[in-house]
Write a structure and sequence with these properties.
The protein is built from 11 helices and 11 strands. Helix 1 runs parallel beside helix 4. The longest helix has 18 residues. It is an alpha/beta fold. It folds into 2 domains: about 250 residues, TIM Barrel (Alpha-Beta Barrel); about 70 residues, Type Iii Antifreeze Protein Isoform Hplc 12. The strands form 2 sheets. The protein has an 8-stranded parallel beta barrel, surrounded by 7 helices. The protein has a two-stranded antiparallel sheet with strand order 10-11.
């Protein structure tokens, strides 16, 4: 199973183009499938008197810088995504051909923005539902009908406590939207990166059915860039990517075939461990084999029969000793013969 891994830069670029370039390059080298930045224009994010208004103002970059980042990502075969917070950032993301935009949980009830997103040319919409109620998600999905929607659970708790993730919510949402083929599910992880749970919690989400993982990447905890509390350094992120790829392989994909589409290794395991049908007592040629005369045991035979139903009721063409395995050549084709 293929899991899309998004390197979440968020505000970690801190408004510096060179820093954004370094983070993008580090994300690509670490193996991320996509990289996401917050495309911030302070005047559409908050009022001037908001306590973090100066911070948001400092995150603004020139349009050509954002265009350059998109080009770099595309040249390297990666997607570039943006968190958008209003009409201006949406239009900018559309103009520079972003591969996807994410409507942050802060805008779950922003009907005007959701309607603008639905009218944009951008087809892939990530819907951050951390802190969102079911009715809000339902309304957003209706507005975004026709788009490829990725419902992303998870929220930033600097870092988020394990018990606060409620990953089981994925099962509820998958059931609710099972009839919509354009909806997938993801998890935005914000685990403490100083713990091995930074790798384990996303694996739990994969088991719950997500196909997208967001994970913060920073240049290092000691720099204390924005969101560093739940961010991995580039070398850690590379290890994270490798781990998640293996988890995806372990999850696999079952089919409707009788053997569920099991691997060749598992089929070999079946062949090696299956017990063979053996005679529990001597049986003479011409006798019709009864259930009381057979048992199941492992033997050294290479072509022994394994299903008792293929043996019982059939007529032997030769004597068979106790503990000997049955072979399909031991029987007459005409089971009516006495």
């Amino acid at each position: 199973m293929m899991i899309k891994i998004i390197a979440e830069i968020a505000q970690g670029y801190e408004g510096h183009f060179r820093q954004a370039q370094i983070l993008l390059d580090a994300s690509i080298k670490a193996g991320a499938d996509a990289v996401k930045f917050q495309l911030v224009y302070a005047d559409e994010f908050c009022t001037p008197d908001y306590k973090y208004s100066k911070l948001f103002k400092s995150l603004e970059m020139k349009n050509e810088h954002w265009e350059s980042l998109v080009k770099t990502a595309h040249d390297q075969g990666r997607e570039l995504h943006f968190d958008i917070f209003g009409e201006k950032s949406l239009q900018m993301a559309d103009k520079i051909k972003a591969d996807a935009v994410k409507v942050h949980g802060t805008d779950m009830g922003n009907i005007k923005l959701l309607e603008s997103v639905s009218l944009s040319k951008i087809k892939n919409i990530y819907l951050g539902v951390g802190g969102g109620y079911s009715v809000e998600i339902e309304n957003a999905v209706k507005i975004l009908n026709g788009k490829n929607i990725f419902i992303i659970i998870g929220f930033q708790g600097y870092p988020t406590k394990e018990s606060d993730n409620q990953i089981d919510r994925i099962k509820v949402l998958k059931k609710e939207y099972s009839s919509n083929p354009n909806i997938q599910f993801g998890f935005a992880d914000h685990a403490n990166t100083e713990s091995q749970l930074a790798y384990a919690i996303p694996a739990v989400a994969i088991g719950a059915g997500v196909t997208v993982l967001e994970k913060h990447l920073s240049l290092g905890r000691t720099l204390e860039l924005e969101d560093y509390e739940s961010a991995l350094a580039p070398d850690q992120f590379k290890q994270f990517v490798n781990t998640i790829r293996i988890c995806g392989q372990a999850l696999g994909k079952s089919t409707a075939a009788p053997d569920f589409g099991m691997s060749e290794a598992e089929r070999q395991y079946r062949n090696n461990t299956r017990k063979h049908v053996v005679a529990s007592q001597p049986i003479r040629k011409g006798a019709r084999v009864s259930p009381a005369e057979i048992g199941l045991k492992r033997t050294s035979a290479k072509d022994a029969m394994t299903d008792p139903q293929d043996v019982c009721g059939r007529i032997l063409t030769k004597d068979i000793a106790a503990n000997k395995p049955f072979n399909c050549h031991f029987f007459t084709d005409n089971n009516d013969e006495a």
